[in-house]
Amino acid sequence: MLKWMPLPATLLVVAVAAGVVAAQPAPPPPGAAGLPPFLARVRTQLNLTDDQVNRLSQAYAAYRTRTERLRLDLARARLDLREAFLAPTPDRARVEGIARRIGGLQDQLTQARIGLLLEIRTILTPEQVERLRTLSRQQRFRRWPGRWRR
């Protein structure tokens, strides 16, 4: 009877992990007028025009659409990795393959984020970009006073 205990325990862990990932909430909804949350907080301080708000909202919606599938694939790959590690004798090649898949998905998410930030810079004026940089530094200082270096 003790020989069968690892299998049910393994199945329970995998089932719980799958439930946890499935129960993860979606990324927070966009802020006011569909803006990215960090821009929604500083909208008035940047003096965004209605056209800028619309363009920023469209850029953010496109980013969320592009990255939603990547986030789901990344969650699945992490589950696969956990499952591979829980095997009585993990297959090194499978684990390494899943790790490469996770790295590729993280790279795609990073590229999408950089693309969004570059697009935001084309929508904002140089003065707004500088003001946003200043506000970002102030926010960072409030969160981590000992780590603010710039």
Description:
α1 (6-23) runs antiparallel to α4 and α4 packs antiparallel against α5 (92-123). Mean pLDDT is 80; it is low at 1-5 and 27-31. The longest helix has 37 residues, at 50-86. The chain has helices spanning 6-23, 37-41, 43-46, 50-86, 92-123, 126-143. Helices cover 76% and strands 0% of the residues. The protein starts with 5 loop residues before the first helix and ends in a 7-residue tail after the last helix. It has 150 residues and is mainly α. It has a domain at 35-135: Four Helix Bundle (Hemerythrin (Met), subunit A). It is built from 6 helices and no strands.
The low-confidence runs, each spanning 5 or more residues with pLDDT under 50, are 1-5, 27-31
The SSE string, one letter per element, is HHHHHH
Note the beta-strand portion: under 5%
Mean pLDDT: 80
| CA-based gyration radius | 21 Å
Helix content: over 70%
Terminal-residue CA separation: 62 Å
Shape: elongated
CATH architecture of the domain at 35-135: Up-down Bundle
The CATH topology annotation of the domain at 35-135 reads as Four Helix Bundle (Hemerythrin (Met), subunit A)
CATH class of the domain at 35-135: Mainly Alpha
Structural class: mainly alpha
Biggest beta sheet attributes = none
Q: What is the overall number of helices?
A: 6
Give descriptors for this structure.
150 residues, 6 helices, 0% strand, mainly alpha, Four Helix Bundle (Hemerythrin (Met), subunit A)
